[in-house]
Amino acid sequence: MKSTDIRILEATCSTQQIDYRTPIKFGGRIVNDVVLFDVRVRVETRDGRVAEGTGSMPIGNVWAWPTDAVSGEDTQQAMISLGERLTQQASDYQGAGHPLEITHELATGQAATEAAVRQSKQLAEAMPRLAQLVAASPLEAAIHDAYGRALGQNSYDVLGEEFVNADLAHYLTDEFAGEYLDRYTLRTPKPTMPLYHLVGALDPLTSSDIATRIADGLPETLGEWILADGLTHLKIKLNGDDLAWDVERVASIERVAVEAQQQRGCNDWWYSLDFNEKCANVQYVLDFLARVKEVSPGALQRVQYIEQPTHRDLKANPENRMHAAAKIKPVVIDESLLDLESLLLAREQGYTGMALKACKGHSEALLMGAAAQKYGLFLCVQDLTCVGYSFLHSASIAARLPTIAAIEGNGRQYCPAGNQDWVERFPSMFDIQNGEVGTAVLTGPGLGF
Question: Both ends of the chain: CA-CA distance in Å?
Fold first, then answer.
């Protein structure tokens, strides 16, 4: 026990709905709005210091729970219900400790709580583990935030042996004995980080792709976005089941990017490729890369990594090994990454990297970030069209993990209304200059903002 250990005095939650500026398509589904799940937690240390912390995250049910067995409205409501129940359980929790310990212990009850939600709503199938993580993530963030604020320190500066009661071997493997998260995180955030801009399957590349302009003052074509924000990193959404379309999409983006970057005088920029699990097998990926090399070799050269090309269920699809593709470009898991077991299985199946997301839980992101560094894996941080608080949270993780080179942030494209309350407070995070976000400002108490 340490004097800095906290207990939860109260936890409350609420939701807010925000319309998208433009729809986004991924995994064959179209999304037009976001529901944010917000949590506030009040804590007290053993030596009597009291503080309040906040967490916020998009529910993201279309991504976290893709299914035809339950309607989108019902999956969303079930995730909200789970989040509400978990928040109440945290409010009733009588234990004390470091946020890593508290969130770890609270997580042990999630499966039973999910079962209760499923029964009460008479759902046709169980809520996937990924959806459970998303529903719990605002609570985790709020606990970490409150802990740092109670101590008057940044949450990333209170991860060492002085504050945590158990080493990383308690959460990971014996390889981490005697190690703590301060070994795998930075005491000062990276001052700036490149921003990955999303090029969705519905997004116009040129003016000829637009039937009617939105005319709200924001860029509307890829070329306009590149020039306005000085973009150097583009995340390309692909179909995964239409080779000709996917190859032409990359080639078209390359043509637009070359023209825009020439106007900027920029010679170096990068792409990531996201198939959203739609590739039937690794051969599709290999055929795709070979065709891109033929029609647009410059585009292939700029590819930094490939994201989750085949089905997220690694156990059920052991034949989808990525060794051959990973020899060409890093291949990272996203939806597949649920815990250490899934990470180890992914390594065995040939994946060479992972995408961290704040929506899977702050503790989980830090632990998986440590494991990735131990195992020499490629690391990136992506978001769930995070806006406002949730984007700042996601960026804080990226800025504090040393091997992460860029961060995704597409809320400013699809849901700028969600950023309005934060732009004036953190202009460097929302006014993109030279394709970068100014993460040097994320140094305050708690999660940093």
Answer: 28
CA 365 to chain centre: 9
- CB-based burial of residue 358 (10 Å sphere; 0-12 exposed, 13-18 middle, 19+ buried)? buried
Per-residue model confidence as pLDDT tens for the chain (449 residues): 999 999 999 999 999 999 999 998 776 778 999 999 999 999 999 999 999 999 999 999 999 999 999 999 999 999 999 999 999 999 999 999 999 999 999 999 999 999 999 999 999 999 999 999 999 999 999 999 999 999 999 999 999 999 999 999 999 999 999 999 999 999 999 999 999 999 999 999 999 999 999 999 999 999 999 999 999 999 999 999 999 999 999 999 999 999 999 999 999 999 999 998 999 999 999 999 999 999 999 999 999 999 999 999 999 999 999 999 999 999 999 999 999 999 999 999 999 999 999 999 999 999 999 999 999 999 999 999 999 999 999 999 999 999 998 999 999 999 999 999 999 999 999 999 999 999 999 999 999 99
Torsion of CA 355, 356, 358, 363, to 10 degrees: 160
Domains of the chain, first to last: 6-174 (3.30.390.10), 193-441 (3.20.20.120)
- The residue among 249, 212, 261 whose CA lies nearest residue 435 is 261
Q: What is the CA radius of gyration of the chain?
A: 21
Each as own residue / partner, the long-range contacts of residues 338-342 (CB below 8 Å, 24 or more positions apart, any chain) are 338/129, 338/130, 338/133, 339/364, 340/171, 340/172, 340/173, 340/367, 340/368, 340/371, 342/314
**Tally of CA atoms within 13 A in the half-sphere of 164 that contains its CB:** 26
